[in-house]
Amino acid sequence: MALSADILRGYTDTIILRQLAGGDSYGYQINKRVAEKSGGGLEMKEATLYTAFRRLEGAGYIRSYWGDEMSGARRRYYALTPHGREKLLQDCEAWQETKRLIDRLLEEAE
After folding, report:
1. 65: closest CA among 48, 46, 80?
2. 19-62 pLDDT, tens per residue?
3. Is 80 in contact with 56 (CB distance < 8 Å)?
């Protein structure tokens, strides 16, 4: 079952930051990894992904640089900054609290 875009919209940045916590990467690779990890339930549109990269870089959560590929097109890589690592931790804590709250609200009535 594909997840609703409305549900995930507020977590796009956190999902990207989490992917970068594992190491520097580029857009296509991040999108592919997200699709694989979600079992195809989430695929980010290219425009969404690159808009998020610009927003995250502007906020100082990530930095970008050009790779030095020997063959093929040059790729822009993204790396998590220390500020981005802090943001990721805050966002994950907020997600856990949100999840607990939603779980309570959706429990069967006693």
Report:
1. 80
2. 999 999 999 999 999 999 989 888 888 999 999 999 999 999 99
3. no
Closest to 68 measured CA to CA, from 79, 81, 77, 58: 77
Biggest CA–CA distance in the chain, Å, is 63
> What CA–CA distance (Å, rounded) separates 106 from 89?
26
Query: Is the distance from CB of 35 to CB of 42 less than 8 angstroms?
Result: yes
Residue recorded with tokens 């979600």 = 38
Which SS3 state, helix, strand or coil, does residue 110 take? coil
Q: Parse the chain into domains and list their residue ranges.
A: 5-106
Write the burial class of residue 43 (CB in 10 Å: 0-12 exposed, 13-18 middle, 19+ buried).
middle
Q: How would you classify the pairing of strands 76-80 and 25-26?
A: antiparallel
Does pTM surpass 0.90? no
Topology of the domain comprising 5-106: Arc Repressor Mutant, subunit A (1.10.10)
